[in-house]
Design a protein that fits this description.
The longest helix is centred in the last third of the chain and has 21 residues, at 661-681. The protein is an alpha+beta fold.
């Protein structure tokens, strides 16, 4: 979309904001649109589209009718925007409340609503409501990205559009297409669920996002009305947790230590085992039949609640594990392996990245994006006079050139047919930006639905952290933002975040104490990629989380570099009596990456299916390129590549390796060996 459209929308907004009695269509057409060629019908359609876009930004265009004869004549209708109804109310926050708010906004770094959280915080900054705050040590949680389906569903929920997707039913094991009115999205038992009206079944249904087997299609030409007072957290509270079952699996001798830690080794069957009265198995123990494990393997009983969750893990182990029972678990593993193998065997795309290819899911810049930024920029400059232009650009996440393009449009915008004093007046000749004429745009616009959801859902999620929930700041800032968000804040009940409290608070407390005292730590750590346990001395730098999985970033003296350790894989942690080295520093500002790039990393080119494009963000792709059909090429750096076949198998058809060819071949061999085991051991088809 052209910059002229951005300028037109901005001038229309300024005109409607600065008129007391309203402007007729004919006046707007002549003075704002300068339209002398189109028909009345064509101009009417353009004006209605522009009103709709201003409404999306939070500005309701009011139609004022003249009283008396001819009051229903559209030619006499006047239009204006109220100066108070669209503005963000004043929000005054204490330093403690600002700390909690920033933590809530940072939850969405790479998840859907991440940009909305940034916009919401920027509006509060523009209004002068935020003060300097220091984040507490060890309390830097984030919400794990839930993939492209999550983002599409959030957009459909807020826009009230039905969606279509293919779904694998847990009760029947059958894959079917579903047409759903999405009411809400929330996390329960470590899984994301969609709650909505299934049109095909005529009733409310719960859908686990991990069971979606296709991309989500949003039916933008259709709409629906959600139930009044809907609250997704209350709906999900009624879901019962699945009962514990036991899987029987054969595992290579001495491999998969992490799986073995939570499993039970089953004794080899004997002839006596089939004799009545020879022995009674423990209650709940799995039935394993009379055929023993294959040579070189151990037979294990693994507890689990959901076949799809365990199936994702077991699929990553490839030929190192074979599922004996139950059949639905074996089917879940085979389905992922088969999908990964079929994707790997497809014709190869041309590997080419455009010049200065952006990483992640780059979205084409539109006039709406630019106008939204300008509406934040003007009040921000009013409350932050004299900032260096480079600092302003950094605050808005754009280049200096892009900021100057915005400023040039702004200084040409103002009242229709106004004098120079009726234009926005912004100066940056000395590289310091000043604004002296803001044309009643000094206060930011009210929160959008996305922005209200991002902050309020983030604050609700922080309730699971005792050190924040017990203080009064979390409750007070939530009440202030609910009041500021108004009706849009009520709609935040359609989204509910996961628990972010750590599973092992003792390990977290030890790490936090070491961070505060500057002590060095000794840890015993299990690495699933190497399938080994190692002893390390580390200098702790900071703690952060993804959902309730917490990480310790530290300088590892064994590796002589920065490493990130999952707390639930630390088997022992204690101070070693030495102080941490003062030279060790965290890698940049929070949020951090889950790995640190090194010169000897391997650069890997992968192809991502449409459902897997979110992996480009998860693994910090350095370059990306869009592919026909919605897929993506991504160039990613990996410090260790031995585990990449596991990575491909785990994601079951969402990713394949293209380069280097040796890694691609190793991945195909890994998948083929795993599938061969199931073909040889299974005598019945799996749905």
């Amino acid at each position: 979309m052209s910059a002229s459209r951005t300028e037109r929308l901005l001038n229309l907004l300024i005109a409607l904001l600065n008129t007391k009695y309203g402007l007729r269509r004919s006046e707007l057409r002549d003075k704002v649109y300068h339209d002398t060629t189109s028909s009345d019908v064509a101009f009417g359609r353009m004006f209605e589209r522009d009103k709709g876009e201003l409404r999306q930004f939070g500005f309701d265009v009011e139609a004022v009718m003249d009283t008396g004869w001819g009051s229903d004549d559209p030619a006499t209708t006047r239009y204006r925007i109220g100066k108070e109804s669209n503005r963000l109310p004043d929000v005054s926050l204490t330093p403690e409340e600002c700390t909690v708010l920033i933590l809530a906004a940072q939850l969405w770094e790479h998840a859907a609503l991440g940009s909305a959280a940034v916009d919401a915080v920027r509006k509060l900054q523009a209004a002068g409501g935020l003060v300097d705050a220091e984040l507490p040590t060890g309390v830097q949680p984030r919400i794990r990205p839930a993939g492209q389906a999550f983002e599409d569903l959030v957009a459909a929920i807020h826009a009230q559009h039905p969606v279509r997707f293919s779904y694998l039913a847990g009760s029947t094991g059958q894959e079917q297409e579903r047409l759903v009115e999405p009411w809400g999205l929330g996390s329960r038992f470590g899984q994301w669920y969609l709650v909505g009206h299934d049109r095909g079944r005529g009733d409310k249904r719960f859908f686990r996002l991990s069971r979606l087997t296709s991309a989500v299609t949003v039916l933008e030409k259709e709409g629906f009305t959600p139930p009044a007072g809907f609250n997704v957290r209350a709906e999900l509270a009624g879901l019962a947790e699945l009962p514990v079952q036991h899987a029987v699996v054969d595992v290579e001798h001495g491999r998969l230590l992490g799986l073995r830690k939570r499993a039970q080794v089953l004794p080899a069957p004997t002839s006596a085992a089939a004799t009545p009265g020879a022995g009674t198995p423990e209650p709940g123990a799995p039935e394993q039949g009379t055929q023993g494990p294959a040579a070189g393997t151990d037979r294990l009983a693994v507890p689990f609640r959901d076949a799809e969750t365990l199936g994702e893990e077991l699929a990553s182990y490839g030929p190192r594990v074979t599922v004996i029972s139950p059949p639905e678990l074996a089917g879940a593993v085979r389905r992922r392996l088969t999908a990964a193998a079929e994707f790997a065997d497809r014709p190869l795309p041309d590997v080419a990245f455009p010049e200065a290819a952006r990483a992640g899911r780059a979205r084409k810049r539109t006039s709406e994006d630019q106008l939204k930024r300008m509406l934040q920029l003007v009040p921000f400059l009013v409350h932050n006079q004299g900032l260096h232009i480079s600092e302003v650009a950094a605050r808005f996440g754009i280049t200096r050139k892009a900021l100057e393009d915005d400023l040039r449009i702004l200084i040409c915008s103002g009242l229709p047919e106004g004098y120079p004093d009726d234009l926005l007046d912004i100066q940056w000749d000395d590289d310091h930006v000043f604004i002296t004429q803001a044309l009643d745009m000094t206060r930011p616009v009210r929160f959008t639905v996305d922005e209200a959801c991002a902050l309020l859902t983030g604050l609700e999620t922080l309730n699971s952290l005792p050190e924040l929930a017990e203080g009064g700041a979390l409750e007070s800032v939530t009440l202030k933002l609910m009041a500021a968000a108004g009706e849009e804040g009520v709609k935040a009940a359609a989204l509910s975040g996961p628990e972010v409290a750590p599973g092992d608070s003792a390990t977290l407390d030890t790490a936090r104490a070491a961070l505060e005292s500057g002590a060095q730590l000794h840890l015993r750590y299990f690495s699933p990629q190497r399938d080994a346990v190692s002893e390390r001395d580390v200098d702790p730098l900071r703690l952060y989380s993804l959902d309730n999985t917490w990480y310790l970033e530290a300088y590892c003296h064994s590796a002589q570099g920065l490493r990130n350790f999952r707390l639930d894989r630390i088997e022992a942690l204690e101070p070693n009596g030495r102080p941490a080295a003062a030279a060790a520093k965290p890698t940049g500002s929070f949020p951090v990456k889950l790995f640190t790039p090194n010169d000897d990393d391997t650069v890997v080119v992968v192809e991502l299916a449409p459902r897997g494009t979110g992996l480009a963000d998860d693994y910090y792709a350095e370059r990306t390129a869009a592919l026909p059909g919605g897929g993506m090429l991504a160039e990613i750096r990996f410090g260790s590549t031995d585990w990449l076949p596991m990575f491909v198998a785990q994601h079951g058809g969402m990713v394949r390796i293209l380069q280097p060819e040796a890694l691609a071949a190793a991945s195909r061999d890994w998948l083929a060996a795993a599938l061969t085991q199931y073909e040889a051991s299974s005598d019945r088809p799996i749905d």
